[in-house]
Amino acid sequence: MKLSHRITNINGGGSDGWDVFLKARGMIAEGVAVTELTIGEHDIGTAAPILQEMHRSAMGGHTGYAMVPGINALRDTVAARVQARTGVPTTRDNVIITPGGQAALFAAHTAVCDSGDTALYVDPYYATYPGTIRAVGAVPQSVPALADNAFQPRAKDIAAAAEQGAASLLINSPNNPTGVVYSRDTLQGIADVCKAHDLWLISDEVYDTQVWDGEHISPRALPDMAERTLVVGSMSKSHAMTGSRCGWIVGPEEVIGNLVNLATNTTYGVPGYIQDAASFALNQGPEVEAEVAEPFRRRREKAMEVLAAQNTVTLVPAQGAMYLMLDIRATGQSGDDFANTLLDAHHIAVMPGESFGQAAAGHIRVAMTIDDDRFIAALKTLCAFAADLAKK
């Protein structure tokens, strides 16, 4: 018996980028104390009032099948939130609720890519992007955003890739892994390329509440872009609801209508009590979102002080999200080698830049997801370790 090429080729025959993370988890399972700075998991957990609303809804009986596109209350709340932040008229008919942002990425590519189509994405990228594209039968093609351009993707590079034929482009700002927020000029250049080459734009905006410098601009709000943009959002990062698996896609009504058909035949929606809790959380307003984001803002400021006091490790402009991208090329090691040797020597786990594409080679991603004191102590150890390597 043979498995489909689509399922066996999700990782393209290589690593899925999670090797160091899995190694660290293996060490922890064996009783080794490891400081994990790997994944984007809040250390504060989901707030008690949100959990209480989830419990109230479940105990009240909202545990059966929910409406596949999402309950009207949540769709209306998401639509109002998006319209208020972008100025683009948005109704529930522009919104489908999905089991998290990852499911939204899969659904969005399913909507706009046929089997064999080329789907573009920016490198560095979140580790699942190429696998998601392969999973829908499309062909992933990366477009590098280079370190010497502050990891801002250039329109001319996207255009060169699009000229070979492509159906879609996936972007992410604020960006995971780099922490870079795309500028208005960058986004306008991306929009111009999408219109010139008839590309669908899939905009992953799950970190839109975590902006430290600059401003978050949704490309859906740019002229003539609402009709060709699908925005992916999620409760995971904005409200520390990672395990609740509640996200959405915002886009043209025709696309959303067809995505309802996809959901009917795949996920069959999101549990009602989860949606009730998400609607409750969003209606608490931006103050709650700022409270969830505050630990990362604070740790970023502390980290910048540590990094300013040494000259081996260089910080990529940390404008948003819960990560720091650090340039460790002065050590003479790759990101993979540095992450593995740091884990072996000091039991500190970080993600190699190579897990997020070749444009991030020679870098590491550090998640700011443990308490302040432990985070700063780990960062100081990391910098001292890098300095020792650079001397050899």
TrEMBL record:
Asked if Transferase is a keyword of the record, the answer is: yes
Domain Aminotransferase class I/classII large residue range list: 35-374
Q: Which cofactor does it need?
A: pyridoxal 5'-phosphate
Recorded catalytic reaction(s): these are: L-aspartate + 2-oxoglutarate = oxaloacetate + L-glutamate
Keywords, A to Z, come to:
Aminotransferase, Pyridoxal phosphate, Pyruvate, Transferase
**In the record, what terms sit under GO molecular function?**
L-aspartate:2-oxoglutarate aminotransferase activity; pyridoxal phosphate binding
- A biological process term (GO) from this entry: amino acid metabolic process
EC number(s)? 2.6.1.1
Similarity comment: family membership: Belongs to the class-I pyridoxal-phosphate-dependent aminotransferase family.
Put simply, this protein is called aspartate transaminase
The protein's gene is named: aruH
